Amino acid sequence: MEVTKLRRIWQNNSLSIVSFGLFFLFWAGMAIAGYFEYLEQQQDFGQPATLPFLAYLGTGHFWEATFENWESEYLQMGLFVLLTAFLFQRGSAESKSKEEHRQEEEEEAEEEQTGKAPGEDGQAPWPIRRGGIIRTLYEYSLTIVLLFFFLASWILHALSGAIEYSQQQVLLGKAPATVWQFIRRSSGSSRCRTGRANSSPSARWWC
After folding, report:
1. Tens-digit pLDDT profile for residues 49-67
2. In the chain, what are the domain boundaries?
């Protein structure tokens, strides 16, 4: 009985299970690689490389790398979803044809007039029937959520990067930096613009 139940759960949720499994697998790999990089960095600053792995998960170094990755992915997905709503690419499975867009517009017009979704006995979703700004937010909810997560990742990337950069400044005998100072320094990073490798948090944040 338990085997049948587990099989049903796998059949109904296999995509989510595999996706989240790969997510945590690669996140763990990033954490392990970042941990050894952090220890080498500490040695470069003349500090003992004795930080436990679990303690590393609370450092700005780890969270800066995490939000740096999330920031780029959410921006990519958000823009892709937004652009596919207006632009076309012949032969692409992700791009709807002009006929499909025209059909959607006709169905939306029918929903506005009847308050029901085409081909269904039930009513259209409440935001569709309400119209106005509520309907617009509903129609673009996926793009809005993805871009919101991008903005949140961007902010958290800046905060964690500033923490990591301040720690490096303290090890060099300098005063800690504020978030704004970190952002200003990163925006003026010439090494990033010339394409040369730079492991400093500010350069990675700007790149």
Report:
1. 889 999 999 999 999 999 9
2. 1-57, 60-85+142-207, 91-139
